[in-house]
């Protein structure tokens, strides 16, 4: 019985076989390094900064949105109503790295 897929682990993102050289183990699955991205914003993740949520991986920011979606809505509303010309917005998300 031929096994055209190669019989290795399948990447959850692209459904293709993951070879050991490009394999990342996370979320009880094997990922291509290049496919190990936040499902929401597509930002590349590493094993030290990803968050797993319902069998998928997210960056820290998007993971927070998943956990507290209402908080995000509230922030967007606040931004809408606090548009002040020339005012430096406080509480802006800190850039990482
Ligand atoms: Zn992949
Ligand atoms: Zn993200």
UniProtKB/TrEMBL annotation:
Key words, A-Z: LIM domain, Metal-binding, Repeat, Zinc
LIM zinc-binding domain sequence ranges: 9-69
Chain positions covered by the region annotation Disordered: 76-97
One of the Pfam families matching this protein, by short name: LIM
Domain of life: Eukaryota
Biased composition (Low complexity): 85-97
InterPro entries referenced in this protein's UniProt entry, alphabetically: Znf_LIM
GO molecular-function term, one example from the UniProt record: metal ion binding
UniProt keyword Repeat present: yes
Protein's UniProt name: LIM zinc-binding domain-containing protein
Organism placement in taxonomy: Eukaryota, Metazoa, Spiralia, Gnathifera, Rotifera
């Amino acid at each position: 019985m031929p096994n055209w897929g190669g019989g290795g682990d399948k990447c959850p993102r692209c459904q293709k076989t993951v070879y050991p050289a490009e394999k990342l183990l996370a979320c009880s699955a094997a990922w291509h390094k290049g496919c190990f991205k936040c499902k929401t914003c597509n930002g590349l993740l590493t094993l030290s900064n990803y968050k797993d949520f319902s069998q998928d991986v997210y960056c820290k920011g998007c993971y927070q949105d998943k956990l507290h979606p209402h908080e995000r809505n509230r922030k967007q509303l606040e931004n809408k109503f606090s548009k002040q010309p020339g005012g430096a917005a406080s509480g802006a998300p800190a850039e990482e790295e």
